[in-house]
Amino acid sequence: MNKHLSLFICTLALLLSPLFAKAAAVSPSVIELSSPDGKVINSSFTIFNTRASEQVYFLDLLAFEPNSQDGTPVFTPDTSDQNEFLSWIHFPVREVPVPAQSKVEVPFTVVIPDDEASGSYYGAVTVSTAPSDVVASNGATIEAKTAILVFLTVEGETVEKLELLDFSATQSDASLPFGTFQYRLQNQGNVHLMPVGEITLTGLFGQTVGVLNANEAQGRILPSSTRTYEVTFNGDTSWFAAAGYQLRHLAIGPVTVDVTLTYGETGTLEAQTIVWVMPWQLMSLLVMGILVVVLFYKRIAKR
Protein backbone atom coordinates (compact mmCIF):
# COMPACT_ATOMS: atom_id res chain seq x y z
CA MET A 1 0.00 0.00 0.00
CA ASN A 2 2.78 2.43 0.95
CA LYS A 3 4.67 1.52 -2.23
CA HIS A 4 1.67 2.39 -4.41
CA LEU A 5 1.11 5.62 -2.47
CA SER A 6 4.75 6.68 -2.92
CA LEU A 7 4.58 5.92 -6.65
CA PHE A 8 1.40 8.00 -6.95
CA ILE A 9 2.97 10.97 -5.13
CA CYS A 10 6.12 10.88 -7.29
CA THR A 11 4.07 10.69 -10.49
CA LEU A 12 1.88 13.59 -9.37
CA ALA A 13 4.95 15.70 -8.54
CA LEU A 14 6.44 15.10 -11.99
CA LEU A 15 3.18 16.04 -13.69
CA LEU A 16 2.69 19.20 -11.67
CA SER A 17 6.30 20.42 -11.50
CA PRO A 18 6.11 22.43 -14.79
CA LEU A 19 3.12 24.33 -13.41
CA PHE A 20 5.27 25.74 -10.62
CA ALA A 21 8.16 26.80 -12.84
CA LYS A 22 9.23 30.29 -11.88
CA ALA A 23 10.02 32.99 -14.37
CA ALA A 24 13.54 34.35 -14.43
CA ALA A 25 14.24 37.58 -12.54
CA VAL A 26 15.85 40.16 -14.82
CA SER A 27 16.76 43.83 -14.81
CA PRO A 28 15.94 46.11 -16.48
CA SER A 29 12.59 45.10 -17.95
CA VAL A 30 12.83 47.73 -20.70
CA ILE A 31 15.95 48.76 -22.64
CA GLU A 32 16.01 52.01 -24.63
CA LEU A 33 18.69 52.41 -27.32
CA SER A 34 19.43 55.17 -29.82
CA SER A 35 22.04 55.44 -32.56
CA PRO A 36 22.64 56.50 -36.17
CA ASP A 37 22.50 53.81 -38.83
CA GLY A 38 25.58 51.72 -39.59
CA LYS A 39 26.69 51.59 -35.95
CA VAL A 40 27.15 48.81 -33.39
CA ILE A 41 25.53 49.31 -29.97
CA ASN A 42 26.73 47.46 -26.89
CA SER A 43 24.21 46.85 -24.13
CA SER A 44 23.46 44.36 -21.38
CA PHE A 45 20.95 43.12 -18.83
CA THR A 46 21.22 41.18 -15.57
CA ILE A 47 19.80 37.77 -14.67
CA PHE A 48 19.22 37.01 -10.98
CA ASN A 49 19.17 33.45 -9.64
CA THR A 50 17.37 33.35 -6.29
CA ARG A 51 17.44 29.56 -6.08
CA ALA A 52 19.59 27.41 -3.83
CA SER A 53 21.38 25.77 -6.77
CA GLU A 54 22.97 26.83 -10.04
CA GLN A 55 20.51 27.47 -12.86
CA VAL A 56 21.09 27.62 -16.61
CA TYR A 57 19.02 30.26 -18.41
CA PHE A 58 18.26 30.18 -22.13
CA LEU A 59 18.10 33.31 -24.28
CA ASP A 60 15.86 33.85 -27.28
CA LEU A 61 14.29 36.64 -29.33
CA LEU A 62 10.64 37.36 -29.93
CA ALA A 63 8.75 39.94 -32.00
CA PHE A 64 5.74 41.78 -30.60
CA GLU A 65 3.03 44.16 -31.71
CA PRO A 66 1.04 46.64 -29.60
CA ASN A 67 -2.41 45.58 -28.42
CA SER A 68 -5.01 47.65 -30.27
CA GLN A 69 -6.83 48.50 -27.01
CA ASP A 70 -4.29 49.34 -24.33
CA GLY A 71 -0.99 49.16 -26.24
CA THR A 72 0.45 46.31 -24.18
CA PRO A 73 2.81 43.96 -26.07
CA VAL A 74 1.29 41.03 -27.95
CA PHE A 75 4.06 38.57 -28.74
CA THR A 76 4.17 37.18 -32.26
CA PRO A 77 6.52 34.21 -32.60
CA ASP A 78 5.65 33.85 -36.28
CA THR A 79 7.21 35.98 -39.03
CA SER A 80 6.53 39.71 -38.84
CA ASP A 81 8.05 43.00 -39.94
CA GLN A 82 9.88 43.31 -36.63
CA ASN A 83 11.83 40.09 -37.23
CA GLU A 84 14.28 42.18 -39.27
CA PHE A 85 15.23 44.05 -36.11
CA LEU A 86 15.66 40.78 -34.21
CA SER A 87 18.32 39.73 -36.72
CA TRP A 88 20.39 42.74 -35.63
CA ILE A 89 20.65 41.47 -32.02
CA HIS A 90 23.56 39.15 -31.21
CA PHE A 91 24.53 37.29 -28.01
CA PRO A 92 27.99 35.85 -27.32
CA VAL A 93 26.22 32.78 -25.87
CA ARG A 94 22.61 31.60 -25.72
CA GLU A 95 22.92 29.55 -22.53
CA VAL A 96 23.88 31.44 -19.36
CA PRO A 97 24.74 29.56 -16.14
CA VAL A 98 24.07 31.59 -13.00
CA PRO A 99 25.40 30.38 -9.61
CA ALA A 100 23.00 29.96 -6.71
CA GLN A 101 21.92 33.17 -4.98
CA SER A 102 23.86 35.21 -7.51
CA LYS A 103 23.54 37.32 -10.64
CA VAL A 104 25.22 37.50 -14.04
CA GLU A 105 25.40 40.41 -16.46
CA VAL A 106 24.58 39.33 -20.01
CA PRO A 107 26.07 41.47 -22.81
CA PHE A 108 24.62 41.74 -26.29
CA THR A 109 25.18 43.87 -29.38
CA VAL A 110 22.84 45.48 -31.88
CA VAL A 111 24.32 45.85 -35.37
CA ILE A 112 22.40 48.48 -37.32
CA PRO A 113 22.74 48.09 -41.11
CA ASP A 114 23.96 50.97 -43.26
CA ASP A 115 21.32 53.21 -44.84
CA GLU A 116 18.62 51.91 -42.50
CA ALA A 117 15.52 54.11 -42.35
CA SER A 118 15.25 56.34 -39.29
CA GLY A 119 12.51 55.61 -36.78
CA SER A 120 11.61 53.06 -34.12
CA TYR A 121 12.41 49.35 -34.06
CA TYR A 122 11.41 47.02 -31.26
CA GLY A 123 11.51 43.42 -30.13
CA ALA A 124 11.91 41.30 -27.02
CA VAL A 125 14.74 39.31 -25.48
CA THR A 126 13.33 36.32 -23.62
CA VAL A 127 14.94 34.50 -20.70
CA SER A 128 13.69 31.08 -19.63
CA THR A 129 14.74 28.07 -17.62
CA ALA A 130 14.09 25.75 -20.57
CA PRO A 131 15.19 25.80 -24.23
CA SER A 132 12.80 27.46 -26.67
CA ASP A 133 11.72 24.19 -28.27
CA VAL A 134 10.71 22.80 -24.87
CA VAL A 135 8.85 25.98 -23.90
CA ALA A 136 7.01 26.00 -27.22
CA SER A 137 5.92 22.37 -26.93
CA ASN A 138 4.87 22.40 -23.27
CA GLY A 139 2.13 24.89 -22.46
CA ALA A 140 2.64 24.38 -18.72
CA THR A 141 6.10 25.96 -18.82
CA ILE A 142 5.29 28.96 -21.01
CA GLU A 143 5.02 31.10 -17.86
CA ALA A 144 8.73 30.46 -17.24
CA LYS A 145 9.61 32.92 -20.02
CA THR A 146 10.49 36.46 -19.03
CA ALA A 147 10.57 39.15 -21.71
CA ILE A 148 12.81 42.22 -21.81
CA LEU A 149 11.44 44.81 -24.23
CA VAL A 150 14.10 46.43 -26.43
CA PHE A 151 13.32 49.73 -28.15
CA LEU A 152 15.75 51.16 -30.70
CA THR A 153 15.55 54.59 -32.30
CA VAL A 154 17.58 54.93 -35.48
CA GLU A 155 18.45 58.60 -35.52
CA GLY A 156 17.80 60.79 -38.53
CA GLU A 157 14.58 62.28 -39.87
CA THR A 158 12.37 61.26 -36.95
CA VAL A 159 8.83 62.56 -36.48
CA GLU A 160 7.45 62.93 -32.94
CA LYS A 161 3.70 63.46 -33.12
CA LEU A 162 0.95 62.30 -30.77
CA GLU A 163 -2.74 63.06 -31.12
CA LEU A 164 -5.02 63.11 -28.06
CA LEU A 165 -8.19 61.49 -29.37
CA ASP A 166 -10.39 61.64 -26.27
CA PHE A 167 -10.41 62.03 -22.48
CA SER A 168 -13.17 60.72 -20.22
CA ALA A 169 -13.99 60.12 -16.56
CA THR A 170 -16.09 57.42 -14.88
CA GLN A 171 -16.99 58.07 -11.24
CA SER A 172 -17.19 55.12 -8.86
CA ASP A 173 -19.44 57.11 -6.50
CA ALA A 174 -21.43 60.26 -7.30
CA SER A 175 -20.64 61.68 -3.85
CA LEU A 176 -16.86 61.65 -4.43
CA PRO A 177 -14.49 62.48 -7.31
CA PHE A 178 -12.97 58.98 -7.13
CA GLY A 179 -13.10 56.87 -10.26
CA THR A 180 -11.28 56.01 -13.47
CA PHE A 181 -9.89 58.48 -15.99
CA GLN A 182 -9.06 57.36 -19.53
CA TYR A 183 -7.32 59.11 -22.37
CA ARG A 184 -6.55 57.73 -25.81
CA LEU A 185 -3.46 58.63 -27.82
CA GLN A 186 -2.54 57.97 -31.42
CA ASN A 187 1.10 57.96 -32.52
CA GLN A 188 1.23 59.63 -35.93
CA GLY A 189 5.03 59.78 -36.02
CA ASN A 190 7.73 57.22 -36.78
CA VAL A 191 9.28 56.79 -33.30
CA HIS A 192 7.94 55.31 -30.07
CA LEU A 193 7.06 57.86 -27.40
CA MET A 194 6.34 57.85 -23.67
CA PRO A 195 3.93 60.56 -22.50
CA VAL A 196 4.46 62.02 -19.04
CA GLY A 197 2.24 64.38 -17.12
CA GLU A 198 -0.50 64.81 -14.55
CA ILE A 199 -4.25 64.63 -14.15
CA THR A 200 -5.38 67.48 -11.89
CA LEU A 201 -8.78 67.75 -10.22
CA THR A 202 -9.90 71.28 -9.32
CA GLY A 203 -12.93 72.07 -7.17
CA LEU A 204 -15.66 74.68 -7.51
CA PHE A 205 -13.68 77.27 -5.53
CA GLY A 206 -10.37 76.74 -7.36
CA GLN A 207 -8.95 74.38 -4.75
CA THR A 208 -6.93 71.31 -5.78
CA VAL A 209 -8.94 68.17 -5.07
CA GLY A 210 -6.37 65.67 -6.35
CA VAL A 211 -3.26 65.24 -8.51
CA LEU A 212 -2.52 61.95 -10.28
CA ASN A 213 0.37 60.64 -12.35
CA ALA A 214 -0.96 60.37 -15.90
CA ASN A 215 1.41 57.53 -16.87
CA GLU A 216 2.75 55.92 -13.72
CA ALA A 217 3.46 52.63 -15.53
CA GLN A 218 5.63 54.52 -18.08
CA GLY A 219 3.76 52.96 -20.97
CA ARG A 220 5.12 53.69 -24.44
CA ILE A 221 3.09 54.11 -27.59
CA LEU A 222 4.53 52.67 -30.80
CA PRO A 223 4.39 54.29 -34.25
CA SER A 224 1.14 53.94 -36.21
CA SER A 225 -0.73 52.65 -33.16
CA THR A 226 -3.40 53.83 -30.74
CA ARG A 227 -3.18 53.27 -26.99
CA THR A 228 -5.62 53.83 -24.14
CA TYR A 229 -4.16 54.95 -20.81
CA GLU A 230 -6.19 54.40 -17.65
CA VAL A 231 -5.62 56.18 -14.35
CA THR A 232 -7.47 55.21 -11.18
CA PHE A 233 -8.25 57.62 -8.33
CA ASN A 234 -9.05 55.65 -5.17
CA GLY A 235 -9.94 56.59 -1.62
CA ASP A 236 -11.88 55.53 1.45
CA THR A 237 -15.59 55.56 0.58
CA SER A 238 -16.96 54.73 4.04
CA TRP A 239 -19.60 57.15 5.34
CA PHE A 240 -17.54 59.21 7.79
CA ALA A 241 -14.38 59.08 5.63
CA ALA A 242 -16.37 60.40 2.66
CA ALA A 243 -17.83 63.23 4.75
CA GLY A 244 -14.36 64.13 6.01
CA TYR A 245 -12.94 64.18 2.47
CA GLN A 246 -15.80 66.37 1.25
CA LEU A 247 -15.24 68.82 4.10
CA ARG A 248 -11.43 68.99 3.76
CA HIS A 249 -11.51 69.49 -0.01
CA LEU A 250 -14.85 71.33 -0.26
CA ALA A 251 -15.75 68.74 -2.88
CA ILE A 252 -19.16 69.89 -4.05
CA GLY A 253 -20.70 70.49 -7.45
CA PRO A 254 -18.57 70.49 -10.61
CA VAL A 255 -14.97 69.26 -10.35
CA THR A 256 -12.79 70.11 -13.35
CA VAL A 257 -10.42 67.34 -14.46
CA ASP A 258 -7.44 68.40 -16.59
CA VAL A 259 -4.89 66.11 -18.22
CA THR A 260 -1.59 67.74 -19.22
CA LEU A 261 0.99 65.69 -21.12
CA THR A 262 4.43 66.21 -22.58
CA TYR A 263 6.30 63.89 -24.94
CA GLY A 264 9.46 63.78 -26.99
CA GLU A 265 11.48 66.97 -27.20
CA THR A 266 8.75 69.62 -27.26
CA GLY A 267 5.37 67.91 -27.64
CA THR A 268 2.47 68.93 -25.37
CA LEU A 269 -1.15 67.81 -25.12
CA GLU A 270 -4.06 69.00 -22.98
CA ALA A 271 -7.69 68.02 -22.45
CA GLN A 272 -10.44 68.68 -19.92
CA THR A 273 -13.60 67.06 -18.63
CA ILE A 274 -15.95 67.61 -15.66
CA VAL A 275 -17.37 65.33 -12.97
CA TRP A 276 -20.16 66.29 -10.59
CA VAL A 277 -19.93 65.63 -6.87
CA MET A 278 -23.06 65.48 -4.72
CA PRO A 279 -21.74 65.34 -1.12
CA TRP A 280 -24.80 63.88 0.56
CA GLN A 281 -22.76 62.57 3.51
CA LEU A 282 -21.48 66.06 4.36
CA MET A 283 -24.92 67.57 3.75
CA SER A 284 -26.47 64.98 6.06
CA LEU A 285 -24.01 65.92 8.82
CA LEU A 286 -24.77 69.61 8.35
CA VAL A 287 -28.53 68.98 8.48
CA MET A 288 -28.14 66.86 11.63
CA GLY A 289 -25.96 69.58 13.17
CA ILE A 290 -28.55 72.24 12.41
CA LEU A 291 -31.33 70.09 13.90
CA VAL A 292 -29.32 69.53 17.07
CA VAL A 293 -28.72 73.28 17.44
CA VAL A 294 -32.41 74.10 16.82
CA LEU A 295 -33.61 71.49 19.33
CA PHE A 296 -31.06 72.74 21.87
CA TYR A 297 -32.27 76.35 21.61
CA LYS A 298 -35.92 75.28 21.75
CA ARG A 299 -35.24 73.37 24.93
CA ILE A 300 -33.51 76.39 26.46
CA ALA A 301 -36.37 78.67 25.39
CA LYS A 302 -38.92 76.51 27.26
CA ARG A 303 -37.12 76.98 30.58
Written description of the protein model:
The protein is built from five helices and 17 strands. Mean pLDDT is 84; it is low at 1-21 and 137-143. Strands 2, 4, 5, 7, 9 and 10 form a six-stranded mixed beta sheet that branches. The chain has a four-stranded antiparallel beta sheet with strand order 1-3-8-6, with no helix packed on it. The chain starts with a helix and ends with a helix. Strand 16 (253-263) and strand 17 form a beta hairpin. The chain has helices at residues 2-16, 83-86, 132-137, 239-249, 280-302, and strands at 25-27, 30-35, 40-49, 55-66, 73-76, 89-90, 95-98, 102-111, 119-128, 146-154, 162-171, 179-187, 196-202, 208-213, 226-233, 253-263, 267-277. The chain has 303 residues and is an alpha+beta fold. The protein folds into two domains: 22-154, Sandwich (Immunoglobulin-like); 162-286, Immunoglobulins (Immunoglobulin-like).
Spell the H/E element sequence: HEEEEEHEEEEHEEEEEEHEEH
Largest pleated sheet: 6 strands, mixed
Oligomerization state of this entry? single chain
The CATH class of the largest domain, by name, is Mainly Beta
Summarize the amount of helix as a percent range: 10-25%
CATH architectural type of the largest domain: Sandwich
Category by helix and strand content: alpha+beta
Distance between the termini: 91 Å
| Mean residue pLDDT | 84
Total strand segments: 17
